[in-house]
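# step 3/5: fold
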Amino acid sequence: MSFSSPTNATPNNVRSVALAILHQDGQFLMQLRDNIPTIIYPDRWGFFGGHLERGETPKIGVKREVLEEINYQIENPIFFCRYDDEVALRYIFHAPLTVPINNLILQEGADLGLVSPDAVKKGQCYSEKLGEVRPLGKIHQQILLDFMSSLS
C-alpha cells in the first residue's frame, strides 16, 4: 500500500474513490455496508463516500457522496492521505460531524453509528439496528488507526 497526495492519475483497472472520516466527540461515523456478497466489504463497517465520477475532483466527490448517502453537507473536507492498492485509489478526507447523528438520513447501507477508538482498535462495532457486532473493513480499520496516530 502506498500513501500520496491527491491527484487524478488512475490506472485503467483501479477505481478512484473519495471517503470521509467524519468525527464527533472523539468518535468516528461509519456505515455498516449491506450484506450483499457482490459488493466490496459486505456486512462490514466502512466510511461514507464512493466512486468518483468522470472529471470529478476527490474533494467534490466526497462532498457529493456524503450528501447522497446521509444527507449531510461537508463544509470543508480536509485531505488526510491517499491509500492505493489493487482494489482502489482511496482519497481520504476528514471533517467534523456538526449535527446530531439522529439528524442524518441513511440512504445507503444497513446501519450507521459512531465508532469509538477502542472499537476501531478491536476491529469490530455493535450495530444498534441489527443488535449484533460486525467487523470493520480491514482497510477502513487501518486508515482510522493511521488517522488516530496522526492526531497524537
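# step 4/5: annotate
The domain at 2-151 is CATH 3.90.79.10 (Nucleoside Triphosphate Pyrophosphohydrolase).
# step 5/5: archive (pending)
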